[in-house]
Design a protein that fits this description.
The chain has nine helices and no strands. By secondary structure, the protein is mainly alpha-helical.
């Protein structure tokens, strides 16, 4: 099964605003640790770079991962930051890229605590579970993501098709690959999968 790239969560940014010194911002991150995200006390944070936006760019582009991770943490400590669910998803993507699967799953779960209707958090959770060979849990997460209208539904259907095919459910897999291609007609991965199938008409019943 192909491991798919995780999907960054975008958000509307009012200002594209490097971060001034923030106490604790450079603290060492422990793999798999639950990072305290809510600020304590009254804190006013001043930026000349928007840390949530930098977190998103890092998750999307996959470069300067540790630098981006620091910005995610800084953003989450800002009491005025509104995009908490999206930022936690983006941090999870970065943590996964750094080899911290457990931390990534923690972040995706935390994102769902901020926004239980966030389909993209379920979908990213599923992609990590697929990579960890936990297909039953991945399938449940994908189904939740689909039900909630995840942004990249073509990836959801494609991933579900892979799980179904691995389990020998070829008809269901074919339908899901086809659905992925219907959603995104230039989706090359789904096209390649469909090309491997040969559709045989059902035998006509005889009298």
């Amino acid at each position: 099964m192909k491991h798919l790239t995780l999907l960054s969560a975008s958000f509307v940014s009012a200002i594209s605003v490097s971060v001034l010194a923030v106490p604790g911002a450079s603290a060492e991150i422990v793999a798999g640790a639950a990072i305290p995200d809510r600020p304590t006390g009254n804190v006013q944070m001043i930026y000349n770079t928007n840390p949530a936006l930098q977190c998103f760019h890092t998750a999307r582009d996959g470069v300067d991962l540790k630098f981006g991770l620091e910005h995610c943490d800084i953003a989450m400590h800002d009491p005025m930051m509104n995009y908490r669910a999206q930022t936690v998803v983006n941090r999870g993507i970065i943590r996964y890229a750094l080899g911290d699967s457990r931390g990534a799953l923690n972040d995706f779960q935390n994102a769902l605590e901020y926004n239980p209707a966030m389909g993209d958090a379920y979908l990213n959770q599923a992609l990590v579970l697929v990579a960890e060979k936990r297909p039953a849990e991945a399938l449940a997460a994908i189904n939740q993501g689909i039900a909630l209208g995840a942004t990249n539904l073509q990836v959801a259907y494609y991933s579900r098709g892979e799980i179904e095919e691995d389990e020998g459910h070829f008809a269901q897999a074919y339908r899901d690959y086809k659905q992925a291609l219907m959603i995104k007609p230039d989706y090359a991965a789904a096209q390649r999968q469909l090309e491997r199938f040969k559709v045989v008409p059902k035998a006509t019943a005889t009298q």
